[in-house]
């Protein structure tokens, strides 16, 4: 009787562990659809990759971050130093290097102080109109950039082998726990079956 009880508990534990082990594996495997005795079998994630990509994209866009969330912070970005550097570079490249190099006589009229004034006027003009610029930029981004399609494309292009490795790397302990829980539940069920068999 003890041997029978032990066997039923061990077999139940094995069945529970093996069932959960294959259930976890079948999240990804087989990657490509195969035919087994007329049944088409494919891993859940490879089979529903497109649906999952759309669902993830919708969740990210609606619950986590959208293009409006991104553009809402653009106007707060301070670009003073960067604008100064860009204006300096443009004036130096276009005016000092190209115009003065081609027309040396122009250096008699375009002095260093005049170049500084030109830079200053350009910087002031940019600074005075940056709000309008950011408004146009933000509107254009919101109209043109489709966050959902970007996310879907990224997920679709993600190699399933790499995704599988990443999931196992991140959730390896949790997946092992699921296997162990399956073994424990199987053992409990085996014990219950043995107890029931005593009264049948």
UniProtKB/TrEMBL annotation:
Cell location: Endomembrane system
Keywords: Membrane, Transmembrane, Transmembrane helix
TM regions (residue ranges): 6-24, 178-199
Domain of life, source organism: Bacteria
InterPro entries recorded: DUF445 (IPR007383)
Source organism per UniProt: Psychrilyobacter piezotolerans
Family of the protein in this entry: Belongs to the UPF0754 family.
Protein name stated in the entry: DUF445 family protein
């Amino acid at each position: 009787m003890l041997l029978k009880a032990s066997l039923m508990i061990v077999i139940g534990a094995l069945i529970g562990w093996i069932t959960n082990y294959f259930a976890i594996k079948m999240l990804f495997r087989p990657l490509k659809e195969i035919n087994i005795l007329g049944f088409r079998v494919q891993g859940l994630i490879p089979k529903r990759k497109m649906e999952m990509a759309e669902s993830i994209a919708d969740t990210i866009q609606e619950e986590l971050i959208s293009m409006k969330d991104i553009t809402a912070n653009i106007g707060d970005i301070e670009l003073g130093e960067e604008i100064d550097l860009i204006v300096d570079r443009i004036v130096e490249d276009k005016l000092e290097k190209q115009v003065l190099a081609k027309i040396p006589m122009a250096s008699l009229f375009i002095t260093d102080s005049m170049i500084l004034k030109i830079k200053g006027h350009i910087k002031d003009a940019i600074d005075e109109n940056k709000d309008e610029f950011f408004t146009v930029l933000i509107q254009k981004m919101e109209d043109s950039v489709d966050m959902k399609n970007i996310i879907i494309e990224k997920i679709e292009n993600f190699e399933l082998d790499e995704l599988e490795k990443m999931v196992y790397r991140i959730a390896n302990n949790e997946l092992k726990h699921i296997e162990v829980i399956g073994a424990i539940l199987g053992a409990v069920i085996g014990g219950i079956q043995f107890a029931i068999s005593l009264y049948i």
